[in-house]
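Agenda item 2: zinc ion complex prediction
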Amino acid sequence: MKAYALFTLLLATTISTPMAVAQTTSEIDAHIAAAKTAAGLDYRATFVNLCFPTPFPGGPRGAAALLTPRPAPDRGIWYASPYQVFDNLYWLGTRQHSSWALKTSAGLIIVDTNFAWATQPEILDGLAKLKLDARDIKYVILSHAHGDHDQGVATLQSKFGTKVVMGGPDWDTTLQRAPDVAGGVPKRGPGDIAVGPEGTKVTLGDTTVDVIFTPGHSPGTLSYVFPVKDKGKTVMVAYSGGTLTGAFGTDGKRWDEYIDSQKRIARAASAAGASVILSNHSEYDNAYTKARLVAVKREVGEGNPFISTPQSVQDYFTVMEECATAAKLRNGAK
Ligand SMILES: [Zn+2]
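Presented output:
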């Protein structure tokens, strides 16, 4: 009886598998096609990197690989001048990674802090070049605790008493780091904020950043919606805090968490009417190119290069959601 049952099961499996595979393949293709349409020409890098990820030999490029202190690479491959990109938003990035300064009526909020070797030339010297005072930094909000975005935070905190906002799970892993990691370890004290699933709002003076909990890229990834001014007119920004899906494998819960997070930030962006998409990698939002374009005189009818449309912002999150759904299916995750 047992042998018969097993035979029946094997037979059923043999018969059904090719069809199931064909169905899964066409489903994957449909999600990739949806992502490709949403990506258009604007979000090609996000589409390619998420829909066709390249496996990293020797394990995922994660927090662990970025903890070892390293000297700055050759300045000729990363240095970028700082730029004011909106009335109250300043880009302090390298050609690859972005930090931002949001100016409020009660001081500065820094969003993401880049590698430790970029703190002085890009954030501190950048603020000085833009005639902003680093002593006015009241908050640093970190999208997630990976070295390309968080290594500068301990320096800003110890120099200026800056309050640090991070997703709760990312705070917890950060506090477990050895003291000699790149950039050092920030301290979590009163006034620092560990954001949970409900998200939070960070208000400084006249400006409120709506912090949305979007786990997936890291367990505590944060994304944001906040207002900026373009020649006096309010424009809403959606900031995508973490992009790559990494080694989720067959862990369906992690894929679903990531996909749900994209829906959550997309809803918040839609509710706010966000027409600007920002990221922490220039590869995804073209911040390096757009920041330099802002400095060029606008012709009649030309707007700020960072402003697109609410639909385009939604398209960005559609790329992320559809590519992740395709990758989940490809990995056989349930
Ligand atoms: Zn990361």
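Discussion summary: Residues 144, 146, 217, 242 surround zinc ion (CB under 6 Å).
Owner for follow-up: CH.
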